[in-house]
Amino acid sequence: MKAVLHKADTRGDANHGWLHSKHTFSFANYYDPQRMNFGVLRVLNDDKVSGGMGFGTHPHQNMEIISIPLSGDLEHKDSMGNTTVIKEGDIQVMSAGTGVQHSEYNKNKDEEVRFLQIWVIPNKQNVEPRYDQITLDKADRKNKLQQVLSPNKEDEGVWIYQDAWFHLTDLESGKSLTYDFKKASNGLYIFVLEGSITAGEQKLERRDGLGIYESNPVELKASENASVLFMEVPLQLG
């Protein structure tokens, strides 16, 4: 097994007052040439937005943008005519394609909203922009993998223009599971949302990330109750 470890406290730290963001990979004013991406996984931002604040209307092109709310309510508006709110238990995807503009605001004035902002480089350029969101049943991830994203429209979860699969699990202390790669040439990025786990021989704590490749399958065990996001992605662009 080959692996790259990103401990939580080594991430880029951007505190703008209304926004406090932790960057696993280089983003905005945080730049580390050794941490540009993990394959086509380009951005993994762990964001906290103050009450009533948010990201004003701004553009994107040719990127698959995934948002996973962790707490609070995030209000989304875009140039495709979508106005909606996403909250814990939801997953949102936007294929920017030929170009889209959107805004994301904390809907509540009296509490912060926390969410993961994830960018995946697509395998098709200049597609027609599209938006989707779904609500997940958290019971479907207790001590097992719940697929939340794939390349296939007919599969569970949302879909994107890339050979990528995302899963979530809520793993009870002492429980184990095995992750089998969908494609042997892909890599797997494991991000611990809460708790602690052991992946292979590597112990991971809250908000640690571990990129694994040339290994199949991957064995995980929870050292305490843990919530974990798995992102299987191609390691090569194209």
TrEMBL record:
Paste the cofactor note: Binds 1 Fe cation per subunit.
The residue ranges of the Pirin N-terminal domain are 13-120
Give the source's domain of life in one word: Bacteria
Q: Which residues bind Fe cation per the record?
A: 58, 60, 102, 104
Keyword tags: Iron, Metal-binding
* Residue ranges of domain Quercetin 2,3-dioxygenase C-terminal cupin in the record: 148-233
The molecular function GO annotations come to: metal ion binding
SUPFAM superfamilies per UniProt: RmlC-like cupins
Residues folding into a coiled coil are: none
Q: Which cofactor does it need?
A: Fe cation
What PANTHER family has UniProt attached to this entry? QUERCETIN 2,3-DIOXYGENASE (PTHR43212:SF3)
Q: What is this protein called?
A: Pirin family protein
